[in-house]
Amino acid sequence: MSWRNSLGNEDIRRFLTNIANALGVYVLVVSCMVMFASFILQMDLSEAKYFEYQSIIEIGDFKFHELTHEDVKNMLEEERNNGTKERTWCQFPPKNMHGRQIYKYNLNVPDLDLKKLNSGFQHGGRYVPEDCLPIARIAIIIPYRDREKHLKILLHNIIPKLKRQKLDFTIYVIEQTHSSPFNRGMVRNIGFSEASKIADYDCYIFNDVDTLMEDDRNMYLCNKRAVRHLLTGYDTHGYQLDYLFLVGGVIAFTKEQFLKINGYTNQLFFWGGEDDELYKRMRCSGIKLYRPVDEIGKYTIISHHHDAKEPDRHKVLRENTDNDVIDGVKNLVYKRLEIEYKELYTRILVDIDEKLVRQSFLDALEKNNR
Ligand code: BGC
């Protein structure tokens, strides 16, 4: 007996109807899923240029708003209540960005074009957008000595871009006197410490004086979940990094992140190594590192001769393995000589005595029986 004979026409019809219904539901479910996925994808893509980050150590996601709004909101609430005109939060990502522009600098840069640059600045180089409430308050720290032309070029480069980013920012130029060789790590530590005495920032960004941002979409913001190295390549190296774990140039820390690793080592005078040692600290404390997508993290370097290289930099890297707690931002020995609130930045002149710094490190080592 064939199956046709055992089933009536009615059964076959019901059977086929059931299949058709099941197929219909299936198609409906699949198309809903496709629509949902494309919606999510579209959302991701629309913000990809700001949010998509390469992760070196571990992949993670983040949302800028989540990180800083509350803190800044509290800080700015007072200003808002103080009768300043009603403002809403600045849009994120900001509108009217210019995108990537290769920066053509001129070493014979004339005096700072203050008229062009200083609108919206408050005393001491703090800029606050006038038309909206900024989502973050940041300190830009520039280690400095004898590089007047470079500083002017950098200010011309960075200020208009940061203004377009609609951030509340203050620029700190930390200048070291000539009594000892330049100490790039320690000057940054001092910048962090001095800026923190003036205000509580959401984000501390160290920017070398010769390192010029090309793309204003490279947001000068921090991420609580990872330290952000904002540089993916520089022109003098074909827009590549010399090595994957390079963290020099421009790097953004929250206060907690910087304190967790005790900042930079104070033991490296002359040129080089402090950023490699910093990376070691980050790795040891399990801090993640993010970089922007390649296109956005491009920088121009002002070419110049470096100071003499730090002869001990490899030795310090090798040996300074457990000393982070006694050598860093919490162990500073220096003199603040001057603080000057200029139109575009706060200038802080400091004296570092190499002998004293080395001696205080040795004393701490001995005290800790290392
Ligand atoms: C130095 C780093 C520097 C890097 C730049 C390394 O040899 O130790 O401080 O950032 O070179 O290429």
UniProtKB/TrEMBL annotation:
It comes from Tegillarca granosa (Malaysian cockle). Pathway: Protein modification; protein glycosylation. Keywords: Glycoprotein, Glycosyltransferase, Membrane, Signal-anchor, Transferase, Transmembrane, Transmembrane helix. The lineage of its organism: Eukaryota, Metazoa, Spiralia, Lophotrochozoa, Mollusca. InterPro entries: Galactosyl_T, Galactosyl_T_C, Galactosyl_T_N, Nucleotide-diphossugar_trans. Belongs to the glycosyltransferase 7 family. It is an enzyme of class 2 (transferase). It is a single-pass type II membrane protein. Residues 90-223 form the Galactosyltransferase N-terminal domain. Its EC number is 2.4.1.-. This is Beta-1,4-galactosyltransferase. It comes from the Eukaryota. Its main location: membrane. Residues 228-305 form the Galactosyltransferase C-terminal domain. Gene3D superfamilies: Spore Coat Polysaccharide Biosynthesis Protein SpsA, Chain A. It is found in: Membrane. The chain crosses the membrane at residues 20-41. Catalyses the transfer of galactose onto proteins or lipids.
